[in-house]
Records
---
Amino acid sequence: MNKLYIANKVYSSWSLRPWVLMKQLLMKFDEVVVPFGEGSNWAAFRQFSPTGKVPCLHTDQGVVWDSLSIAEYLAEKNHRVWPNDTMARAWARCAAAEMHSGFATLRSQCPMNCVIEVKLDQISSQLQADLNRLQELWREGLSRFGGPFLAGAEFTAVDAFFCPVAFRVQTYGLPLDEPCQAYVQRLLSLPAMQLWREQALQEPWREEAHEQACLAAGTLRRDHRTPQA
Amino acid sequence: MNKLYIANKVYSSWSLRPWVLMKQLLMKFDEVVVPFGEGSNWAAFRQFSPTGKVPCLHTDQGVVWDSLSIAEYLAEKNHRVWPNDTMARAWARCAAAEMHSGFATLRSQCPMNCVIEVKLDQISSQLQADLNRLQELWREGLSRFGGPFLAGAEFTAVDAFFCPVAFRVQTYGLPLDEPCQAYVQRLLSLPAMQLWREQALQEPWREEAHEQACLAAGTLRRDHRTPQA
């Protein structure tokens, strides 16, 4: 049985990608949640991940330690991971890879925290540039492949790669056009996304550095967690 | 015929990856070199690339705009792009993806410039951490799959992803252990790498911002280009 190592569901956007992909495609796996903790967790995470980062998939055949490579590993076992059409598949891989190495401002100014709501002080020009590109990319996929998912009728790995963005849009109230907001709602409504958030709400840990990073560019509007004792 | 859009061969590490992969595997393609120029080239690059970045592959079937996705697109046509063994392939994809989203200090403190030599003032602790991980990764691949390339006997996409690092090691005289230095020499000796560097030496452009970035952390030891008129 594959075993997926992930960090806190409240914060870990990278962990969410393979998790939601496998859950949504009904692929069985065990999960191990290792909380970030405060300060460097590199040495602790190195116990199970060669980069000291999550996610990391332990398979019967060996360790697969990068989110995009986990998708490719799974795709060799399950043909639903990527779209069937050659160019839809190429497009989906490009869009997922663009998220993998890009959208730096969106990722740094709006860290994932799927259980709070934040009012941003402002949308910086760099953040707006990321949002512009994001919407252009999503509109292209939804229109070119017919929706309701980015590369066609089925949820595939490219949608999984943008699931953390859906939480970010919800948390920070990011302004998107109608087709993109509808796509965000579609992702948030997925059973696997609802399960992730429910489990996030139950987590006992709060990492101060992560909490503060989420409020660096705005003010707390709502915390959906029950107060700590 | 596939057409690969790239930027200056002197500086463009991302461009080098698919270029050296296709050249080394004897895959035919046309290339279009568009120099970076000074200041923002986003609008100019957007003419041929949806992200405004290079590399970008134009195929008969459509545009493939990310280096890792170009490798996957080519892999569907050519079985030599990735190793044949399942776990060697998974390992190769993880290592390439780690380069795709990581090694940030190595990339920022040692920008690629394959025609000069620079003496670094010092190796910062963050740079040393990147070099430590790099060597661990390379040693693992070389030992586990038997060499002389990272994932076995043949040059595959994972080697292509580390070709820019080989130039960086040469340019900045980065200290690596013996097996890793030997691997760097192996990459630098590839016909495709030698061709890239010869063509870089012939380029007429010098981009001041790029040249200065290469000297930000050290002093010029040698410039292999002929002096400009």
Note: The CA atoms of residues 17 and 161 of chain B lie 5 Å apart.
---
Amino acid sequence: MSRWEPDAQGRLERAALELYLERGYDQTTVAEIAQRAGLTERTFFRHFADKREVLFRGDEMARAIVALLEDVPPSVAPLDAVGVALESWSEFFDDRRPYSKNRQAVIDANPALQERELIKLDSMATMIAAALRDRGATESAAALTAQAGVAVLKVAFQRWLDDPSNQVLAVHIRAALAELKAVTQA
Amino acid sequence: MSRWEPDAQGRLERAALELYLERGYDQTTVAEIAQRAGLTERTFFRHFADKREVLFRGDEMARAIVALLEDVPPSVAPLDAVGVALESWSEFFDDRRPYSKNRQAVIDANPALQERELIKLDSMATMIAAALRDRGATESAAALTAQAGVAVLKVAFQRWLDDPSNQVLAVHIRAALAELKAVTQA
């Protein structure tokens, strides 16, 4: 078998999610995920540290958001800059809405996965805060803006998952950001 | 040994923290914590589910905050009501600042404890959001306000721990809340 596998990451993600839905997360092994994807366990571990990690691209998303923040003009207020960076992920998620719904159902049913999700989001907030400090924000302004940005993402993502009219994620991010501004100014 | 132990919860908390600092969290057993506190393991498990839980009163704090929110007049804006409820915990923490610093050092050094802390804070946000919906907030306004409130608590708590002038926690909560309003209005 060739060491190079086309879209091995995506195949492993889809195989894992199928098995988690069919048998349950606890009952699924890495060997079974690799087999379902037609790949080896070694290939699995080249892409993911464990069977929790296969559902998360949180680090990838956080790194991309930080990179995007560097390109937002300094004149844009920090929270709006975070909003712009978050919105840039809309297309990625809009293209995988059914996968995302199934993925969230599996996470919501498994405390171990909920923990991992919270850690990913907290790590994302820490990375965004560091990027905002690089843009000149004070330590606490950066921390509060980053936490607020992640709160916007959480609320927007849930509304996007539940949205019967299938509006794109960017619309929900803008709405949640506007609502956060409203509740903090009330 | 009597089944009733004066301040068993506090003795177990202090004994656990001492051992975590002396030997490390991973190297400490529940049996050792109970022994150090002069209590039985059975007493430990009447107060805490496991050796992670002994460092957290998160559920107790969340329940108290929800109860306080019910007493804040409806005319107070939701985020300010959360601020008032959070401030009411200042005295509890101000009375145990050295304990809190040691506790945070242990948590920061142990991923398993960081996970538990994130879960406690997320659970607190969920409970605060439910209380805000009872006050009439919409689902997303309640979620965003609750997440923002918990972000204020996180930032304020860290600043309180690091504060060389030992100002009370309430001062840091008010400052973080004002700063959150500033960054969302910029």
Note: The radius of gyration of chain B is 18 Å.
---
Amino acid sequence: MKIKCESIIQNDSLQEECAVFGIWNHPNASEITYLGLYALQHRGQEASGIVSSDGNTFYIHKNVGLVADVYKPHILATLKGYHAVGHNRYSTTGASNINNVQPLFSVGKDGPICIAHNGNLVNAKELRDELAKMGALFQTTTDTEVVLHLLARTIGNWKERFKQVAEKIIGAYTLILMTKNELIGIRDPNGIRPLVLGKLNDSFVLASESCAFDLIGAEYIRAIDAGEIIIINAKGLHSEYFANVRKTTPCIFELIYFSRPDSQMFNESIDRTRREMGKQLALESPANADFVISVPDSSNAAALGYAQTLGIPYEHGLIRNHYVGRTFINPTTELRKAGVKIKFNPVATLVKEKRIIVVEDSIVRGTTLKQLTKLLRSAGAREIHVRVASSPIYFPCPYGMDFPTKEELIANHYSIEGIRKEIGADSLAYLSYEGMVSACPDYNGGYCTACFNGVYPLNYESYSGKFSLE
Amino acid sequence: MKIKCESIIQNDSLQEECAVFGIWNHPNASEITYLGLYALQHRGQEASGIVSSDGNTFYIHKNVGLVADVYKPHILATLKGYHAVGHNRYSTTGASNINNVQPLFSVGKDGPICIAHNGNLVNAKELRDELAKMGALFQTTTDTEVVLHLLARTIGNWKERFKQVAEKIIGAYTLILMTKNELIGIRDPNGIRPLVLGKLNDSFVLASESCAFDLIGAEYIRAIDAGEIIIINAKGLHSEYFANVRKTTPCIFELIYFSRPDSQMFNESIDRTRREMGKQLALESPANADFVISVPDSSNAAALGYAQTLGIPYEHGLIRNHYVGRTFINPTTELRKAGVKIKFNPVATLVKEKRIIVVEDSIVRGTTLKQLTKLLRSAGAREIHVRVASSPIYFPCPYGMDFPTKEELIANHYSIEGIRKEIGADSLAYLSYEGMVSACPDYNGGYCTACFNGVYPLNYESYSGKFSLE
Amino acid sequence: MKIKCESIIQNDSLQEECAVFGIWNHPNASEITYLGLYALQHRGQEASGIVSSDGNTFYIHKNVGLVADVYKPHILATLKGYHAVGHNRYSTTGASNINNVQPLFSVGKDGPICIAHNGNLVNAKELRDELAKMGALFQTTTDTEVVLHLLARTIGNWKERFKQVAEKIIGAYTLILMTKNELIGIRDPNGIRPLVLGKLNDSFVLASESCAFDLIGAEYIRAIDAGEIIIINAKGLHSEYFANVRKTTPCIFELIYFSRPDSQMFNESIDRTRREMGKQLALESPANADFVISVPDSSNAAALGYAQTLGIPYEHGLIRNHYVGRTFINPTTELRKAGVKIKFNPVATLVKEKRIIVVEDSIVRGTTLKQLTKLLRSAGAREIHVRVASSPIYFPCPYGMDFPTKEELIANHYSIEGIRKEIGADSLAYLSYEGMVSACPDYNGGYCTACFNGVYPLNYESYSGKFSLE
Amino acid sequence: MKIKCESIIQNDSLQEECAVFGIWNHPNASEITYLGLYALQHRGQEASGIVSSDGNTFYIHKNVGLVADVYKPHILATLKGYHAVGHNRYSTTGASNINNVQPLFSVGKDGPICIAHNGNLVNAKELRDELAKMGALFQTTTDTEVVLHLLARTIGNWKERFKQVAEKIIGAYTLILMTKNELIGIRDPNGIRPLVLGKLNDSFVLASESCAFDLIGAEYIRAIDAGEIIIINAKGLHSEYFANVRKTTPCIFELIYFSRPDSQMFNESIDRTRREMGKQLALESPANADFVISVPDSSNAAALGYAQTLGIPYEHGLIRNHYVGRTFINPTTELRKAGVKIKFNPVATLVKEKRIIVVEDSIVRGTTLKQLTKLLRSAGAREIHVRVASSPIYFPCPYGMDFPTKEELIANHYSIEGIRKEIGADSLAYLSYEGMVSACPDYNGGYCTACFNGVYPLNYESYSGKFSLE
């Protein structure tokens, strides 16, 4: 049960968060959940779990590793039944403990119940202490278990019960629960993390992103609303609101980086939004160069938007090694310089003697870009102009993004000019805050942009760093 | 997390139960616990777990399999700290679920706590339902988790708190608990399952049987009393009684079969007690034969006692294959006759044409003996006289022995003469109930002999079969 | 040792072949070889092996799986010494047998010797039979073992000995051998498979492609010539020619598909050559559409070249799931339609109602393209114009490309118009043979284009299908 | 492929050697071979392999570990066909390399052939060098591979061919070979290692010992003769002699220690022979004591014979932990004193204050006995009289017994009195050489007693220590 994973390279990207998936009433429930988790692999590569049910018995399998490694045919065969909930997990929060791998499963007054969670509760520690005083026993170190314990102390129908829970918990939470009789989908009153509803023949499906529906051939119906609770059971689908929606503020970083470009949000593909960000960036901060390259694949769309807007050629200047797994043997001292090259290699004949615009989606610590510019220069690049398709990140995220502390964010240490020097670029420009927001789909609501401007929508202002239950 | 173990052969023996081990304040705590569990392997071969602690952080490792397979050097290295609790488990009660492997670990108002249990609670289901109504969430299907939840609802010092728990739970329980600050040993008010105290230099150790002390070089101090709670912490060892001892009734089957012959009980080695049973059996039911053989190794001592008393030679007539593991590929139909031969093979040249007395420790379903007599006859044995060093078993055990139901016990289906026919012996005799009890050490208390005479010491008379939480 | 890998999806692409890597005289020999194999992972994902040596003892590790899975820190630690040879293997030729995983190792009159091979011998079966008659024992089913047996029957210096071997073997072979005293690199007289030489400080390195040098920070020196033998030992590097070069005919498919775009060939990056093919394709077969997309990542460069030439926007229309591993649970019947979607998902909002040009690098069976057009149409594409950046493939390859038989090649079943219908495109055009060859670097030699025109450079004309030793 | 097994305890016993098994023409060939290897597990616990055949295709599985671990149902299912050969291996001779695990398999002029070997060739190194000069390539470091290479260089029928091989090889060899058309059993001209023939319905079986027949329900027919070759094929069984039997000299240590007591040799069970040795020992060196104990289970029979002869009670004074596996975590310094206690624990109440006779089967290094006497003394034994049921061992064994060098044999360092002091016994006596031989079955031949008297039956007198190919 001890797990030790050496991280590949000091990754500057935001660590992905979590994926949830659920299906009710399908003869291949666990198989479909497997495919759904597969399509959502980009949201969490640390561990995966599926709980299936035939309405009576629950079947569980979970383990650390990629979806393709965790499930094998003989394993899927044991996950019987017509209903299933799945989860991919990034975070290693808590002791690296298989108990922490979701979905969590427990038996209480409601009988067996399982839960899968994407997001983060800001006041989990306080709630744990409070619940412990009342006799609750915690067998994981996840904030998710808090929800189970709170639920076990409520009465009424599910909407009423969840309303009581929602009055206690503060944070971002997209939840899928499964009992003997129903599959329940919940999105927090701010709608910070995504959750979408689909239909596969006669079965309803819930997923973090619509790209999961594409793979299983399900029809996309709509996004679950902020504050909405969806109950799927033998009688069909039932929707209610367990909370007065304060202000819908979905995480803008889902658009910038997290979600897959082929997923939809607000009737718009993520790809289109990122293209828009690239376009806006081009208008705000054009550059003169021989061509534009992306840092594949996360900034592909933004780079293309940037290049097309300015009429500068778009090129594949960095080749990505797609066999980079979760674990990689860290080279010994002399070979550490391999560094980012394990993931990216420049096409030397292309970049040689050229003036290049590198479009990146965001800068967190700045370490990857620093290595990349070095790599490009040693391949002969004459000029490197970095353009970032989002604004500088100044604040940590308490809502489920595995962000570094304030101290680790490069924007808190340098001016833009200082960052430019630090990463070794010839010029550097970020997308303006206004430009970034304006590139996002306009719907009757706003976005959580706390990491950019420090405005935490949940008024939990004291938050000042990495959240931990331990 | 799905575990499927094919059982070796339809085993007539009683399935072993569980082993507990604990040590406080030793630089090699987890290593010593490993050795202790190793010496106690005979009490449980299904799964094993160790929780260690440095007084602050807890380290956990558990898995299905034998002690030698579950722990490897790199695993033991992760089990840091000065204190440790270990558990070997037989029972697959509950969904085969690694969550069920003990020690259980949870965090509640007492902070982190772990528990290892040998025994069985008779009223666990009722208590679970009651606790669930109060909001308790169960993440295992063990009765042990009930104790954790009850404890979390008590106040006072450990003695007082455990007194409150003891008022609720009915059954057999030898428990070792560990918190940040203490190691706690508990034996139920009837003292059904054993627990002994030892000392290794400056460290106190607790174990199911004294043979664990021999291996680690610890000094045997004494048995924990029925109803006693031992608290070991920085201040030393503190003993109290949390219950008025109703009537001490240790399980007589520990003497007949469970415990290792080199362990001590009531200042007597188990070996001596079994020898005494064999002797008594010889006096009650002598037989005329060329020699006496045992069913190795469980009836070695009784067979020797029987042979010596009558002056008949003792021989090694059955060779046991010691490489029989927990899992064995069941042969296809044609080869099923391999059956018990996978475990035992008669020495043909020895048994040929001979009159043999087979001394067995007990008969449960009768299947093994039936196969053995067939095996001996086909090897040429002329006469087979079976002598059983305990009385006929008529009643199931609710106190932790993995016993079959009434229906499966052969003694409920046939008279002694009928059993003789069924197993194919030329003669059959059991040790009388009185003879059996008289062979056990005489101390100021009695024994639980419920499986022989149906007198359940805990007045839980409604009990009628295999206990299950599911 | 039995290995069963279910293939991901019915893959239309050419199966990759093999990678070889060798280093002499470096304190981190096995670690560097690991990195080199990592960079060459695209040439073989079935299995990997490293043999290292301290000049006296040889250390071996090989297993099926990806490089990142086959080697772990404790494994690399056992691969001691200063010299190493590594191999990545695609082919499952032969019984799936770990013995077949290269490098092969044997001990004969030359002492210990190991060999890594990329290519394929056309007359391996005849040679095996002949050698067997002379008493040779084969413990693998690889053609590579034939080389070892032949070598063991030669005398003289390495050049002379290999000359004798080269007189016997017909086919494509890039070989790296290692003995106690030297590292030997060999490229067949036609130079069909690539092999390049580099320098890392004082150590010489050999690799299938130059991208391996980029990762380890080695300097690219030059390609090994056709018919050249390079001997690296304590005295340095020594080059000779063991064969009169008939006609240098490197495999044109290395340029079209196999090699990584950031690798160099004939002083030109593969990326540039593919761009040139796309450009040529645009000139020959322009199309009118809203944008151009590639089938990521193999046709990225050609698609970009095509788009830039015609001034049509280039878009990322297909999102590739990078977590597709070697094994994937094949969905049950109902879910088989998942098919190619496991690997690619169209960006629906982008392709909807649009006229699209799909640039593919080559068409083998046509199955992937057929699925892709269906996928794009169901995402709303209005027109789909397929452009292929190479010529139609009519002939199988006996030189190491894991090609289907004549019967499986779609071009042998349909006219171009027939293929268009079969794959469901609105228009289809291939690059002309002349255009394809003209896009390749012009050096003083030609290319093997046997799969396109049936001109087998080794005059082994009887060849008519998949080669197999069994 | 690197294997590292920490040995349990410094084992004084002789390391077991190897087991061979073969069956021809049975629908459950691999399953029966599995059971046969299981029954022969005591002859080799390091690794195991089975090769099966349907007369056309060969199926192979081999791995390190115990039989019960190496084969699982899904593995056995892949070992198809009607014929099979199996092997259990002790020795780690050669680089710990899965290639070395037998049966070896190769393809040469005879087509596919596999071989399983028990024994040791004394002149393997010379033959390897000679064969290598002729172009042979060795892919294992076993002496067994030499036989394959020699065979590949012979012509004629199997008898003639093996006669040619036998003229070259010197040593002990019991071989089972399998080709497409026959199963071949061979025993060397001295008959040093055992091989027996049985019948299971219409199928012939070959095994190292008859106990394998008992488990699978086969009928014992006879032992293969020294110098005999048995050919089993579609026409039935054919026996010939490939060698003039010099002098039949089966290994006396098979009787003393190696073989299972329930196996037969010379129409006598091993158990009876060992009993006879104990009886002879009692007559030669009686002792006065309270009781006799054995070192379970290897000296059980001898101890019983000793006790019965003198009329002294036989007791179970040492309890053996049967869960001791091949690997055991070596305790840290402080805990090393656990030592032999991991395997044996004295029954303290039995041995306390008693005068004990310990009967051991043999003494090699003396380390186990030294630890055991210490253990018994600390358990309170008053007198310890050691009696050894064989003679002092002075010479190493070149014929397959994994014996220490001369230097490691305690008898080469001390007189009997010196050994007594060294192991800490109150008295010590060995069985006389004459007594030992006279206890063995009297047949028209002798025994190899080279380890006792240095008379090597193969006149390979220069032999002076542990044999190694490396």
Note: The CA atoms of residues 106 and 340 of chain A lie 42 Å apart.
